[in-house]
Automatic annotation (TrEMBL):
One of its GO terms (biological process) is protein secretion by the type II secretion system. The keyword Secreted does not apply. SUPFAM superfamilies: RuvA domain 2-like (SSF47781). It holds the Pfam family SLBB. GO terms for cellular component: type II protein secretion system complex. This is Competence protein ComEA. Keywords: Membrane, Transmembrane, Transmembrane helix. The chain crosses the membrane at residues 74-93. InterPro entries: Endo/Exo/Phosphatase_dom_1 (IPR051675), RuvA_2-like (IPR010994), Soluble_ligand-bd (IPR019554).
Length: 281
C-alpha cells in the first residue's frame, strides 16, 4: 500500500533540489580554462560551499527553505537600505530649525545745530527764523549807532549781529535794555539808546499828563525791544503780565505781528483791543 503525503513530499523535494544545486556550484571541472589560478579559486569556493552546505544540513527544513537568498540580492538590499538612511539623514539635517538674526533697526540721527550758544539766549528758534539756504531777514537798526539804516542779515542772526552790521553802538550808549542774544525777526526795528516807551528823536512827555497813558502819545512800544519797565508802563499791564510778554518773546524768538499778543497768557480780547494801538512788533 502506497501513501501519498503531498505537502511533505514537496518540502523534501525542494530541499533535495536546493542541496543538489549547491553541490553543483561547488564542483570545479578539471582542465577548465584559467589554469592553476582558476583552479585555486575554484577550490576555495568549493570549500566555502561545502561548509555552508554542512551548516544548512544541520538546520531545520523550514529554515533551509527561507535562507536560500543569493549574496547579490543581499548586497543590493544593503545598498538600498544605506541609500535610504543617507537620504533620511540629509532631509533631517536640512530641515532642522535655524536661528535667524532680526534686521537691526536704524534710528535716524537728529541734526544738531552748531550755532554758538550764548548765555541768556532762547533755546527754541521760532518757525519764522528757519529757512532754506540763502534766506535773509531785513531789519532796521536805528538810534545811537554809528551807521543806522536797513540791514540784510542771514536768517537766524541775532541782535548782536545787527548791531555789528550797523557799526556798533556809539561810545557811552547804554545797551543794557537790549537782548543781544535774541533771534532777529524779519521787518523789525532795533532801537539803540532810545528812551523807554519812546522813539529816537521823540520829545519826552512832561507835565501832569506824563502817566501810564502817555505811552501812546510818545509812540508805540516795540514788543521785540521793550524792557520790563517799558511794558509795565502800558495801561492795564502790570509786572506779572509784562513778564509773561517777555517770556513769550524769549520762547518764540520775538513778535512778528501785534496779533501774537493774543497768545500771551493773561491777555484777553478786551485788553488786546486796548494795547493794539500802543505797541508794534
Amino acid at each position: 500500500m502506497t501513501v501519498h503525503v503531498t505537502g511533505w513530499e514537496r518540502t523534501v523535494t525542494a530541499a533535495a533540489d536546493f542541496d543538489t544545486l549547491l553541490r553543483e556550484r561547488a564542483r570545479v571541472p578539471e582542465g577548465s580554462v584559467g589554469g592553476a589560478a582558476c583552479g585555486s579559486v575554484g577550490v576555495a569556493r568549493g570549500r566555502v560551499s561545502r561548509r555552508a552546505a554542512a551548516v544548512r544540513e544541520r538546520l531545520p527544513m523550514w529554515v533551509q527553505l527561507r535562507c536560500g537568498i543569493e549574496v547579490r540580492t543581499l548586497a543590493a538590499l544593503a545598498v538600498v537600505l544605506v541609500a535610504a538612511g543617507v537620504l533620511a539623514a540629509y532631509h533631517f539635517w536640512a530641515g532642522r530649525p535655524q536661528a535667524v538674526r532680526a534686521p537691526s533697526r536704524e534710528t535716524p540721527v537728529a541734526a544738531v545745530s552748531r550755532a554758538p550758544v550764548r548765555s541768556g539766549a532762547p533755546s527754541v528758534i521760532p518757525s519764522g527764523a528757519r529757512g532754506g539756504p540763502g534766506a535773509v531777514v531785513v531789519v532796521d537798526v536805528a538810534g545811537k549807532v554809528r551807521q543806522p539804516g536797513v540791514r540784510r542779515l542771514p536768517q537766524g542772526s541775532r541782535v548782536a549781529d545787527a548791531l555789528e552790521a550797523a557799526g556798533g553802538p556809539r561810545p557811552g550808549v547804554d545797551t543794557t535794555g537790549l537782548n543781544r542774544a535774541r533771534v532777529l525777526v524779519d521787518g523789525e526795528q532795533i532801537l539803540v539808546g532810545a528812551a523807554p516807551g519812546g522813539v529816537v528823536g521823540a520829545p519826552a512827555s512832561t507835565g501832569a499828563g506824563g502817566g501810564p497813558g502817555a505811552a501812546g502819545a510818545a509812540g508805540p512800544v516795540s514788543l521785540n525791544s521793550a524792557t520790563l519797565d517799558q511794558l509795565d508802563s502800558l495801561p492795564g499791564v502790570g509786572p506779572v503780565l509784562a513778564q509773561h510778554i517777555l517770556d513769550y518773546r524769549t520762547q518764540h524768538g520775538g513778535f512778528r505781528s501785534v496779533s501774537e499778543l493774543r497768545d500771551v497768557n493773561g491777555i484777553g480780547a478786551r485788553r488786546f483791543t486796548d494795547l493794539k494801538p500802543l505797541v508794534q512788533p
